[in-house]
Amino acid sequence: MTDAVLSADKHLFSLKKFDIIVATGFKEVHLSPLAENSKAAASASFRLLQIDLACPDPLNQYLVADNALIHDLMNDKSGKYAYIVFQNLTDGMTKGYINLLEILAKRDKDEYNDFQVQRLAGLLLTELLHQHWQKISKSRSNFPRKNVRHANRDTQSGAIMTYLTQKNGQVSLKEAAEYFGYQANYFSRLCRKLFATDFVHLRRNIRINLAEDQLLLTNKKLEEIADELGYQDLSSFSKAFAESTGLSPGKYRKKYTLNQINT
Which residue(s) pair with 6 in the sheet? Predict the structure, then answer.
C-alpha cells in the first residue's frame, strides 16, 4: 500500500506501491516503509497475507494459466532463492483479488474457504501473467536458471536477465553468448528479439536499476557504487544515471529516507 523495503533472509528489496513478489525460498519476511520523510513513514500501511498454495506437480492450468515463468518458478526443485517482481499494477484487478483474499483470511478456516483461497490465488497469478512483460521488473527479479537453448521465450528472457543482473551488468556480449552456448551475433539478435532493445542498452538499463537499489538500500559512497557497476568514474556514472532517471545519484538518494527494518 506504500513504497517499502522488504527484508527476506538477509536480502533487501525496494518495492513501489502495489508491487507484488512471487517467490520461492523466502523464510523470514519483514516490511518497512521507504518514505520521503518521517511523517509519511508513520502513515505507511501494509497488508501481508500468507497463502499456502496446494500446487499440482507438475503445475498445470488447474491452478494458474499456462505460462513458463510461473511454472518454472513453482516447479523449481533446486531449493534456491528465486522470485519475480511485478510492478506498474495500476488497474484494479490485482487489488480486487487481494481484497477478496484478505476477507477470506479473516474467516474461520474450512474446506470451502480453503478452496476459494486456492482458486483466487490462482486467478491473481493469472492476472499478473496477463501482458506480463509490461509488469515484470526484469532486473529486480531472480528467475530460475535453466538451459535456455530449447526453452520458450519467457524462460530464455528470465535466465538471461538473471545472469546479467548477477554480473552487475559487467559482462560483454561475447562472454554472455558463450555462457549460454551461442555465437555472439546470434545472441545479439536473440536479445533484440526478446527485449526489443540491443544488448548494450539492455545491460545499461540493468546497471541503472541496480544503482537505484544501491542508493536506496545502502550507505555506500557514490564512487563505490560507480566502481562496482563498472563505470570509469563518478562523472560518467552520474551522467548515465541522470539521463535515465532525471536526477543525479545524490539527489535520488536524498529524496528518500530508509527507515530501519524491524526484525
Answer: 13, 31
